[in-house]
Amino acid sequence: MPSKSPLTIRLTHADDALPLSQWLSKSDILRWFPMYDVREIEDAVRIWISYSRLHAGLTAEWEGVPCGLANLYIQPFKKLAHTCLFSIIVKEDMRGKGIGKALIDELAKVAKEKFHIEILHLEVYEGNPAKKLYERLGFKEFGFQPKFIKEGDHYIGKIFMEKYL
Amino acid sequence: MKELEGLDIRYSHLPDAAHLRDWLKDPVVQTWFPVSEEKEIEDAVQCWIGFSRYASSLTATVEGEPCGMGTLFLMPYRKVAHHCLFKVVVDPKFQRQGIGNSLLKNLKHLAKNYFHLELMHIEVFDANPFIHLLQQHGFQEFARQERFVKDKGKYSSRILYECYL
């Protein structure tokens, strides 16, 4: 009998705000997001989790414990409703297990089948190793903003990527 | 271009929302904005006019009557607070009379000298006549996403421009 995968994916719910806040509070993760401190993290988590009401968020669990989230920021405008920005996070010590790929694959399925989205797009900062995963999954660059992030006197660029579903 | 007689630029006030709402209801103006339905217009107006509380929105008037608005959408997070998105709209009855130019000039001044921003950026839909003005003011394209807009089954692109202040 094949062994059951420890990885499962379910819809995000409000309780996932806690692990999401905890993961974002790690400096090695936060560096890839625009937030800076606890107040900003709480604000971003509130917005992220609010999409769970639309069933637009997915949570990955490893042996029943949350280990990653991905979210569709559903467009409020009819003219843009065929496009969607998404964000993703995987718990730091759970990397390298295929969780990110599984989340994006499932998110793309939900985007296409449930929300009739034609184009999925993302924003990633230069130097983020996740960019390689996005490329492997078929995302293509369509823009670059060189001075998007400022940390002290240091700037980090933002890369825009998209994929047609 | 000769400046329109009686043209003045002042800070936006909350009651300017009524004018903004009227302009965004105009079908030609809507061509260049994502809004197309009553609720979308109302949500956009509330978000837009909300920045008047931070004195980051300017209203153009002719003989005291509002005829256009330009707004800096200040960023809520510290690492990205050195730049901002902005939007400009001109009453369709007053277009091609230098109001957009005057708003843009004053917005750049406000962004640089009052908010100490280093760059400002804007998202426009392909073929928007405002693009010409942006280029005249030194804005450079940094991203272009094909098929971002889908209006009545027809696709068009969004183009992102930025300008260092």
Topology summary:
The complex is a heterodimer of chains A (165) and B (165).
Chain A (H helix, E strand, L loop, with lengths): L6 E5 L5 H8 L2 H4 L7 H13 L6 E6 L2 E10 L8 E8 L8 H15 L5 E7 L4 H7 L3 E12 L2 E11 L1
Helix pairs in contact in A: 1-3
Chain B lengths: L6 E5 L5 H9 L1 H4 L7 H13 L6 E6 L2 E10 L8 E8 L8 H16 L4 E7 L4 H7 L3 E12 L2 E11 L1
Parallel strand pairs in B: 4-5
Antiparallel strand pairs in B: 1-2, 2-3, 3-4, 5-7, 6-7
Helix pairs in contact in B: 1-3
Please identify the structural class of chain A as seen in this structure: alpha+beta
Helical element count of chain A? 5
Q: Total number of β-strand segments of chain A? A: 7
Strand line-up of the largest beta sheet of chain A? 1-2-3-4-5-7-6
Low-confidence stretches of chain B: none
Biggest interface between chains: A-B, 30 and 30 residues
**What composes the largest sheet of chain B?**
7 strands, mixed
What is the overall pLDDT average of chain B? 96
> How much beta of chain B, percentage-wise?
35-45%
Quote the beta fraction of chain A.
35-45%
Segments of chain A where pLDDT lies below 50 for 5+ residues? none
In helices, the fraction of residues of chain A equals 25-40%
Shape descriptor of chain B:
globular
CATH architecture of the domain at 7-117 in chain B: 3-Layer(aba) Sandwich
Query: Major sheet of chain B: order of its strands?
Result: 1-2-3-4-5-7-6
CATH class annotation of the domain at 7-117 in chain B: Alpha Beta
- Secondary-structure element order of chain A, as H and E? EHHHEEEHEHEE
Identify the CATH class of chain A: Alpha Beta
SSE pattern of chain B? EHHHEEEHEHEE
State the fourth-level CATH superfamily of the domain at 7-117 in chain B. Answer: Gcn5-related N-acetyltransferase (GNAT)
Q: Could you give me the name of the CATH homologous superfamily of chain A? A: Gcn5-related N-acetyltransferase (GNAT)
